[in-house]
């Protein structure tokens, strides 16, 4: 299944807030979840919706998400926690969390167009896994810095997760440590995602 390119607002009405997918917000008083469908949700549907939340927020294909679940299963610790850590440490997500891009698809575009450096080397792979002590910078070119500056100016000055540090005027971000699960910017039950994939891993 290819990456989703359809209407984004439709997804947040169905699944709830997905900040990585779109910076748009519903009007006040709008109920995010579609309540038109009556009746109790099946266990399968509950797990499916949690999986879809994760997939659309991080902008992954079905195959990519399944690959991350398999990696998380082989790692030490809780599979769900490891899965979230793997996704949060992707370069496109780090760029989004630093406020250098308004959404994860926007961050992915910056990376693909070679505007971003990691430890002074151009990295054009959005799925690049960042590590503690990595330094993320914007290329020292007017076009690159102007684009990123626009998003830094627009992004709300919210508290950054403890695993990240941003130096706005230097167009530079630091990865201090592996993310703590409480800082994951998405309301999700990762165990339901792991259960959804239990027969495929």
UniProtKB/TrEMBL annotation:
GO molecular function, one term: rRNA binding
Predominant subcellular localization, coarse grouping: plastid
Listed InterPro entries: Ribosomal_uS4 (IPR022801), Ribosomal_uS4_bac-type (IPR005709), Ribosomal_uS4_CS (IPR018079), Ribosomal_uS4_N (IPR001912), S4_RNA-bd (IPR002942), S4_RNA-bd_sf (IPR036986)
UniProt cross-references to SUPFAM superfamilies, sorted A to Z: Alpha-L RNA-binding motif
Superkingdom of origin: Eukaryota
Pfam families in the cross-refs: Ribosomal_S4 (PF00163), S4 (PF01479)
GO CC terms: chloroplast; small ribosomal subunit
Small ribosomal subunit protein uS4 N-terminal domain segment(s): 3-88
Domain RNA-binding S4 span(s) in chain numbering: 89-152
Functional summary from the UniProt entry: One of the primary rRNA binding proteins, it binds directly to 16S rRNA where it nucleates assembly of the body of the 30S subunit.
Subunit description: Part of the 30S ribosomal subunit. Contacts protein S5. The interaction surface between S4 and S5 is involved in control of translational fidelity.
Family: Belongs to the universal ribosomal protein uS4 family.
Protein's UniProt name: Small ribosomal subunit protein uS4c
Species of provenance: Zygophyllum fabago
Gene name per UniProt: rps4
